[in-house]
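DM between two lab members

TW: hey, do you still have the 1-aminocyclopropane-1-carboxylate deaminase entry open?
JB: yeah, one sec
JB: this one, 319 aa:
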Amino acid sequence: MIKNYKSFDLKSLNYFILALKKPAIYQKILCPLFTERQIEVTVKRLDLLHPVVQGNKFYKLHYNLQAAKELGHDKVLTFGGAYSNHIHATAIAAASNGLNSIGMIRGELIAPLNPTLTDAQNQGMALHPMSRSEYREKDSPTLLERLRLRFGNFFLIPEGGTNALAIKGTKEILNDQDLSMDFVTAPIGTGGTFAGLLASALPNQKLIGFSVLKGQFINSEIDDLLQKHKIDPKCTYDIHTAYHFGGYAKHKPELIQFIKELKQNSNLPLDPVYTGKMMFGLFDLIEKDYFPNGSKILAIHTGGLQGIRGFEQRLGIEL
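TW: and the structure you got?
JB:
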């Protein structure tokens, strides 16, 4: 994980585009359990696509920022929590594309700012707190009109970045090299990445989603996304809701221990919010014989490693 985010030159507008053309980096995970089941697990390291705008956020933001510039906007506005990967990525990606950014942050802005918000502010993002009750209205036309009166005209990017342009980007995560895989796994937050993968996976593949949110509602939210964006998956898919470890950004000791062991044994860094839960669920399902012997599994590493700094700072747990 990159510790010094300021060391990278973010002023090159070309880098953001060129990173999409870089060859994907894959990492095969070796484990006695996999050998016993004759199962291959390969991680697609989207966290290595760009030095700081990591993983699926890169794909979600690419077409949004392109549209903002084509429409003549000079600033984007978005929403997120105090440790949001989306806020962090939007601030840096907007700056690298010559755009100003505004971040509406759920809850108070507590000084000193945490590493995520410090990075965002250092890249020029104007941070504004929202009460939790007001934040729940973030999609309402009334609130958005108030924000336009306050900040002027802006290009809106929703919380988590999930919209039609984001899904257009996440459809491009899978390439020809990935289409030989039997299974593709990904963590699910707002669902934009999962929807994009569903739009591009082949009929012979099965997509496995691991919800990081507590509850069964994610199934209806994915259904709504597919209907809204007219996505008719060719593949089959399952969404697992038993690996949230208490809910969004929650954790338990066994998750932390798993993340530490996988990093030590396989040199694979994971975050406790998204990728850690996905990989824990994947190992558990393999142990429970969910996958047929001989299966080839592709796990999508969606990034989010910047959040580890804030996690360690808040809880005193070193990952």
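TW: got it. Residues 56-70 form the longest helix (15 residues). Confidence is low (pLDDT under 50) at residues 1-15.
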